[in-house]
Write a structure and sequence with these properties.
Elements (H helix, E strand, L loop, with lengths): L4 H10 L9 H9 L14 E3 L9 E2 L5 H25 L6 H7 L10 E5 L3 H15 L19 E7 L1 H11 L5 H6 L19 E2 L2 E2 L2 H17 L6 H13 L18 H4 L5 E8 L13 E4 L3 E4 L6 E4 L7 E2 L2 E2 L5 E3 L4 H8 L18 H14 L6 E4 L20 E5 L21 E6 L12 H11 L14 H6 L7 E3 L15 E6 L18 H20 L5 H16 L6 H10 L26 H14 L5 H4 L1
Parallel strand pairs: 3-4, 3-16, 4-7, 16-18
Antiparallel strand pairs: 1-13, 2-10, 5-6, 7-8, 7-15, 8-9, 9-10, 11-12, 14-15, 17-18
The structure holds 2-acetamido-2-deoxy-beta-D-glucopyranose (11 copies).
One 2-acetamido-2-deoxy-beta-D-glucopyranose binds next to loops.
Length: 643
């Protein structure tokens, strides 16, 4: 179903320059080239293939995969130059940070290992997270100007996404690691990030021809039927993932044959020129319909899916999910299956909460009536109460680790939205001791409060889980209650957790420093409802821009030292490990941005933050003035007192 090259050239030649003013032709070609449609069926259904000579197996989670270890050798090396750029720009006085990294560039147990985690929260999370990634991406104009944090993304090893954050990370990797600006602006005729057409309505165009809503839905339903006809159980997640893909994957019909594992073959990923993408979902607790903190957390990466938790404690090769594994192997007379790890299905699994959109009264949204019947058919199979799950059958972990894996006896692996256990930021893959991450930029777009702002719930969930036996040797910085987050404004500017490593058990693993980056209004009310299914381009762009301002604190207008402080956070664990004295400027940063253990649990009334800079597009001078006015309203003299 993918475009033949000649047609591709034809389309590219036909398109006009996009409104953003970038050269349309090259941009379109770069975006059009993307991860591969390598499902053997050439379509949405998985297909049976001969097994490779080394038959796929499930492996223990006691180490990282050989593929990841090999890739890390290249990735860690490739992060050095951008990290040096990032640190140079931060200009830490009386400390040669670029020299520190350069002189230790061969020793990966010294140089910083950076992760970014983008929370769930529907389109709000996609857009706010996109603003952060744009600010961190040296390819984005303005990101490396004074006050910027550009190059951080290029210096990052792991990029994790969950639910709406998984749409962002998935969309970037499904489209050849295009930048947020490229994805946002797309090109004429592309349905990429066209959120003004809701998934109910579908995109305006199918390649070069118009596409009406009925044909769009017919296509979605047909694809799901193809998978069912090929002998696989389907769930609403299949339909949801298909619909979602039209907006996120720039291929005809949302790229039905594109697989998540094909990322591992993409040139820029294989050569470690991009971070490693990881999407997160939860496994439903055995024998119950419940997702709790004790639920097994599942990750999807380009090579593997599985869990470090002491339940499953194993990983399956992403490419061969759908094969009949039993006790970790495929029987000698059994065939292999590929194409089950369909890209939209993986994104849909991480965000399966949104399946319920398809149980709305669809006729109210102008969706053709045959879609409602298709939904009823699926629900009749899966069970109405289970409308928010993703069915992965066969279960790759069938008969695997039966002593600890509560679902080892089940033919079906039942997965659900990664945020349902309240761990709405995908920190889990990044706190595994084996990955040795030093700092996590945790972008939180959760809707915790009445008005859809975050209050630290996701961090608390991960902290609590790290203390339980399910945590399996992970550690996480202590975090305070929601009231403290609000009263001390820990959710209104970046806050560091885990600065002082003496809070951790010295004889076990020291977890990463967490740079909490909460969704905060700077230039837009970025707290749109999780359930709002459509956005005009202007609103989308304003929320992305707000996210850029959250990441940079308004290009450092709120704190001129913010980029330096972000750099100090990156260096923190490396300084500690090498016994290097903390530079005075970094100490100032830590005094300002680290949560120091103070609690203020005074009950809070309504939490209604107002934009720190102002909604209107304004000149720099006016902007600074407005910022100062906000501080004055807050009753503080200087920025330092606020932080
Ligand atoms: C992906 O993008 C890069 C950078 O824009 C480009 O050089 C490369 O050719 C693209 N790769 C593919 C497979 O299209
Ligand atoms: C890397 O640094 C660590 C910690 O300082 C040290 O123990 C180790 O010997 C170094 N490795 C190499 C190859 O230099
Ligand atoms: C910060 O810089 C970016 C990129 O140049 C720009 O889009 C944004 O509007 C700026 N923010 C402020 C508050 O000036
Ligand atoms: C999680 O498991 C622990 C035992 O490891 C148990 O004490 C706790 O009650 C469980 N929590 C939930 C929410 O099920
Ligand atoms: C996997 O097992 C199921 C149930 O026994 C069977 O229907 C299916 O054909 C098998 N698939 C392959 C590829 O062997
Ligand atoms: C669904 O919407 C249609 C059209 O708006 C309406 O006629 C119908 O009563 C609604 N059904 C339910 C169950 O609300
Ligand atoms: C914090 O968020 C949780 C939901 O994540 C909510 O139940 C709680 O009421 C919130 N508390 C405050 C003080 O905002
Ligand atoms: C610290 O970790 C070690 C090794 O994991 C463990 O044996 C010890 O009980 C822990 N101490 C505390 C106070 O948790
Ligand atoms: C800790 O932070 C609180 C407010 O966040 C501040 O009032 C207090 O002075 C700080 N304490 C120390 C010891 O720095
Ligand atoms: C966004 O937050 C503001 C207060 O900060 C509130 O007045 C507004 O109603 C909120 N909007 C939504 C959609 O929750
Ligand atoms: C550090 C730690 O506790 N690791 C355990 C994680 O779970 C597996 C499987 O149960 C154990 O073998 C590890 O010892």
């Amino acid at each position: 179903m993918h475009l033949p090259v000649s047609l591709l050239a034809l389309i590219s030649a036909a398109i006009a320059a996009p409104s953003g003013g970038s050269p349309g032709y090259d941009l379109a070609l770069d975006i059009l080239r993307r991860a591969a449609p390598d499902s053997p069926s050439g379509d949405y259904a998985p297909g049976t293939v001969d097994c490779p000579s080394t038959r796929p197996t499930i492996r223990s989670a006691s180490s990282l995969s050989q593929s990841e270890q090999d890739w890390l050798q290249n990735r860690r090396a490739n992060t050095i130059d951008p990290m040096v750029q990032f640190l140079r720009q931060a200009n830490i006085p009386d400390f040669d940070a670029p020299g520190f990294v350069n002189s230790n560039s061969q020793n990966f147990s010294i140089v910083p290992n950076i992760g970014i985690a983008v929370s769930g929260g529907g389109y709000r999370a996609l857009m706010n997270g996109a603003g952060f990634l744009a600010a961190a991406d040296s390819r984005v104009p303005g990101s490396t100007d004074a006050g910027g944090i550009g190059n951080l993304l290029q210096a990052t090893t792991y990029l994790a996404g969950l639910s709406g954050g998984g749409w962002l990370v998935g969309s970037i990797f499904a489209n050849n690691f295009s930048s947020v600006v490229e994805l946002r602006d797309g090109y004429q005729g592309s349905s990429l990030w066209q959120f003004s057409n809701s998934i109910f309505q579908g995109p305006e165009r199918r390649g070069i021809s118009l596409l009406n809503s009925a044909d769009y839905w017919r296509n979605v339903v047909d694809q799901v039927d193809d998978k069912r006809s090929a002998g696989y159980e389907v769930s609403l997640t299949d339909a949801w993932g298909r619909a979602l893909s039209y907006q996120l994957i720039n291929a005809l019909d949302g790229g039905p044959a594109y697989t998540f594992s094909s990322i591992s073959d993409a040139d820029n990923f294989a050569s470690a020129d991009t971070p490693m993408p990881i999407l997160v979902a939860d496994e439903r607790s055995p024998g119950t319909g419940v997702i709790s903190l004790n639920s097994t957390v599942i990750e999807f990466n380009p090579w593997e899916m599985g869990s470090f938790d002491p339940t499953i404690f194993g990983f399956a090769p992403t490419r061969y999910i759908g094969s009949n594994f039993s006790a970790g192997s495929i029987s000698n007379d059994g065939h292999c299956v590929r194409g089950f790890d369909q890209f939209g299905f993986v994104m849909g699994t991480s965000s399966s909460l949104f399946n319920t959109l398809l149980t709305y009264n669809l006729s109210d949204y102008g969706v053709p009536s045959f879609v409602a019947s298709a939904v009823q058919t699926i629900l009749a199979d899966v069970g109405r109460a289970d409308n928010d799950i993703a069915v992965w059958e066969p279960n790759p972990f069938y008969n695997y680790n039966a002593g600890t894996n509560g679902n080892a006896g089940e033919q079906q692996l039942t997965l659900a939205d990664g945020g349902l256990d309240l761990q709405n930021i995908p920190l889990h893959p990044l706190i595994q001791p084996e990955r040795a991450v030093d700092v996590i930029f945790a972008v939180d777009s959760s809707a915790d409060t009445t008005y859809n702002w975050p209050n630290g719930t996701a961090l608390r969930a991960t902290y609590e889980r790290s203390l339980a036996s399910i945590g399996n040797g992970t550690a996480f910085p202590r975090v305070p209650d929601a009231e403290t987050f609000i009263n001390l404004r820990l959710n209104q500017h970046p806050t560091f957790f885990g600065c002082d490593t003496s809070e951790f058990n010295a004889s076990s693993h020291i977890p990463p420093l967490v740079v909490y980056v909460p969704n905060t209004p700077y230039t837009a009310q970025s707290n749109v409802s999780t359930w709002d299914p459509s956005y005009e381009d202007s609103e989308r762009n304003a929320i992305i821009q707000n996210g850029f301002n959250v990441a940079t604190m308004g290009n450092a207008t709120i704190d001129s030292e913010w980029p330096r402080c972000a750099a100090c956070a990156v260096l923190s664990r490396s300084l500690a490990r090498t016994g290097t004295a903390v530079p005075a400027a970094c100490q100032t940063c830590f005094d300002r941005y680290c949560w120091n253990g103070t609690i203020d649990s005074t009950p809070v009334g309504s939490y209604e933050p107002t934009p720190l800079i102002g909604i209107e597009a304004q000149s720099a001078a006016v902007r600074v003035g407005a910022g100062a006015a906000v501080w004055a309203v807050m009753g503080v003299v200087g920025v330092l007192a606020v932080l």
